[in-house]
Amino acid sequence: MENITALETMKEGHDGSGLGLTMKDLGGEFENMKGYPILSGICSKTGAKILDEFMDKAGFKLKEIWAPKIKPVKGMTPREHYFARVYDYPASYKHKAIKEKEDLLMNMRLALRKIGEPDGSIFVFSFYPDVLTLKEVGDPLQVADFFGLDKADIKAKVVFAQGRQNTNYQIYLYACHPFFIQGYSSMTNGENTAFVPIREFLMSRGVPGYIGYNSDSEVFTHILHYTVRQLGFPLTYYKDVITPLKEAEIELREDRDALRLIKHSLRPLCIDGPNMVIGFTPNGTCFMVHDSKKLRPGVVGGVTGKYALMSEECGLDSAIPGRNKSADIFPMKYDMVIVKPHAEEVMVWNQLQN
Amino acid sequence: MEPAAKLDHNHQLSLKEFPYIIRWRDDRCKRCGRCTAVCPVKAIEPTVKVQRVVLSEGPVPTPTAVKRIVHIVEQVTDIDRYCTGCGTCTLVCPNEAIEPEYNPQNKFLHFKNRGGEGYKRGGRRNDPAISTLDRLKFTRISMLTDPALDAGRHEFRVRTLLGRILPADALPLKRINGRLAVDSDNGKFIPPVREIFPIMIGSMSVGALSPPMWEGLAMGVSYLNEVEGLPVVMATGEGGVPPRLLRSKYLKYFIIQIASGYFGWDEIVHAIPHMVEDPAAIEIKYGQGAKPGDGGLLMAQKVLKLIASIRGVPQFVDLASPPTHQTKYSIEEAVAKMIQSMSMAWGFRVPVYPKISGTKTARAVLNNLARNPYAAALSIDGEDGGTGAAYNVSMDKMGHPIASNIRECYLDLVRQGKQNELPLIAAGGVAKKGNLAANAAALIMLGASVVSVGKYVMQATANCFGDEYNRCNLCNTGKCPRGITTQDPKLYRRLDSDKVAERVVEVFKAANVELKKIFAPMGRSTELPIGMSDGLSIDDKAMADRLEISYAC
Predict the structure, then answer these.
(1) pLDDT band at A14 (very low <50, low <70, confident <90, very high)
(2) What is the CATH number of domain A178-354?
């Protein structure tokens, strides 16, 4: 809930068009189900039936259902089911490699999206072990209240919350940040002016998960997934992909030859708008990066074991008031702030110095 | 009754059939003779006529008719000496006494086929209508949703890539201590790639252009690179390269063209061991937008000593390149071989790409090249491209407009996921109305990586008279009144190569600023907005549908 309160302090920066919450490294009742994938979404009564049949047919066994306790809030009409369902893998997948499992989970999520999207009977946001997503359209504080997050027993080590979903495109559940694909998630601040060429590039990579794009920010998540998971690049190269260095700057880097090739080959993935991206990877590493001109704000601060990555300082004050403010990090245009898993350590990686 | 004179000889034409009619003012003319001396086609001549004049000189009116001998400047009605409207006469007249006027009712093409020869000329398609490129508008403006960029203050990188680019998943990389490095043991061919300014000067040959014109362009391009830091490249056209340039460090700013006549290539190949720099690229010309299906043509009158030596041919012979490469019988085999041979000549260090004229079959060529790992790009030259010499019918009626051609090729690459692998070079009619940066930006947003411009460069840097009303267009005759497309020293002494170079620099610096002024409000600054089709609109629904962009009115 403190994340949402922090969002509230930054409300001048959002239009209250929606709330998205993605949580990772879950505790509470999910503590003992780390290895099992959680399907997060919303569905109608008919949707629930279809979903059950579909999952059953695919061999997934339902282990647990969690649902937020919906509180009536003025102006919000609750949908029929908000859910996080924990499943066990089909028998044939139990001993398969994680990558194969991830592909199965993604394909299941995509299939459910395809079934449920035309009539709005099913919305699915994530299907992955130890990750839970909640989304709804409306004012963030109201939505949090509506989900009963102030009383919920749900706990997570990594909590992503975003209070604005879309500026240039339709307000829609699938346009709500954070976006998620196979363990990678991100949320973004700012308009993505290079959206169309980036979308075209991603959609032609042959990865079935690169669809949707109801928000121009969804591509940031997919670029992260493509760079780190598909191409196998270390995380810092995400910064090099979205904000490539100039030729003279590349010369300063030890890995210049590789960097030049990457810059050329991934030229369409360069972001050009005013953006700040906060993301996490499957191992729980969180990061913050800016566009190449730092046209959007962003700050990282906290104490060992508890760090917050926020778009504005006042949000940080609300979330972690007792920290040493002088140690707050305001990443500059070449920086990538990386918070290691379990918030053990924060480091600033500089693109020029590598 | 007067004799019917000209009517008795019905083959004689009236001035009304001519595209330009000379307006000469008796009261202003001082009979200096400059106009008649300078007219490149001898369309006007000094003439003596007898005029009947009524005079009254006494204190009371006593009108008397007298016959007087007068000297006038007269336009001839010989179709071979038609006034081209170039206006050189106006330029030299000290008293503003003479000027050609366009005659929209002309029936010039009805008669310009004497001797059974079709009308040949230089220039480009005579169509003064607003082109598709000029109808495209940039409609996606970043403003309140997010801060727009400042073209004056923010850092911009208006650069593009020329050369085959490997897909990211095929890069020979390995991970060492959390960093990536090129895996040199992998043995994978990494194609050469050049980072250049996205507008380049299209192929115009030594020979088609006069020495000061070509030299001026070359100097301007070198200055832009060396002093201004603007990596503009220039294609040589088919006509060889001056020997000194071949051996100079500036060769890296030039794309050497090979076409079906192979003119100058003996000299180029022999110079390879002496080259201190590789050329920017090699362009294999298979077609030209201005005259699809026609090869290059340099008329005998332009083949003087210098040109003959650079091209390795005798003097005063027509130099016609065949319409196609004689060794070519299929794209799968012969074109691939040619690309590989040219690559091999420079040790695979130089990008090699073909140039074709705009055509419905461009996608077939494209798809073949997409499968050829040595093809560095595809240059498509649309119907509005220019040329030094061609049949009028080829120029006016043959070819495909560039906008939809480049768009469909780009979208085809997108469908295959190869939009970043094979750069498209768009040419043909860029800056027809002078909007260089806007036309270039529009083509880039439709999917071009590079835009090539020729005719506009001649107009903007050397004041070429040519336009789409068939003004001048004498490039083929060697009588260019500006000294741009002639080998006659008496004519090209009119052109100052330093001035041309200065103008080249000005043109590209201005284009650089204007491109920023277009990209900045659209929120693009770091990478070229290739294929950013959401930024474009057009005021015609059918065109919008065809280009897969939005319609705005």
Answers:
(1) low
(2) 3.60.20.10
